[in-house]
Amino acid sequence: VQLQASGGGLVQAGGSLRLSCTVSGSSTFGTLSLGWFRQAPGKERELLVATSWAAGITTYADSVKGRFTISRDNAKNTVSLQMNSLKPEDTAIYYCATLRLRGGSTWEGVYWGQGTQVTVSS
Fold it and tell me: What are phi and psi for residue 16, nearest 5 degrees?
């Protein structure tokens, strides 16, 4: 399974960006659990949003809730992240990933995209 992320860039605070991730090599895209992570310099990788086909739920980190929205297009094998009201602290490398649930409660990435840089200027 391969993931290709795109859509990062430089934006002013308060602006918006849309990230996209195309998944190839999977014949069961519609059943995949998918998510977006980010990693800022000197910080640990953070799970921002996870969407589970099996459970029919989507969960967001508090840091992005109400500002970021995940969507998927099963016909195009893509998952997108709409990011609004961006803040300088959103500056990071953003990664899409397929997910699995570990221990019944923790999402972890299985296959990863290459990352795309998002920079928010103040």
Answer: -130, 150
- 119 token code pair: 């920079």
Pairing of strands 92-102, 78-83: unpaired
Q: 89-114 pLDDT, tens per residue?
A: 999 999 999 999 888 789 999 999 99
- Mention every residue, 6+ apart, whose C-beta is less than 8 A from residue 3: 21, 22, 23, 24, 96, 97, 98, 111, 112, 113, 114
Pairing of strands 9-12, 68-73: unpaired
> What number of H helices and E strands is found in the chain?
0, 11
Give the integer Cα–Cα distance in Å for 48 and 79.
14
Distances 80 to 5, 27, 43, 63 between C-alpha atoms, Å: 9, 19, 23, 18
Tens digit of each residue's pLDDT (9 = 90 or more) over 27-60: 888 889 999 999 999 999 999 999 987 778 899 9
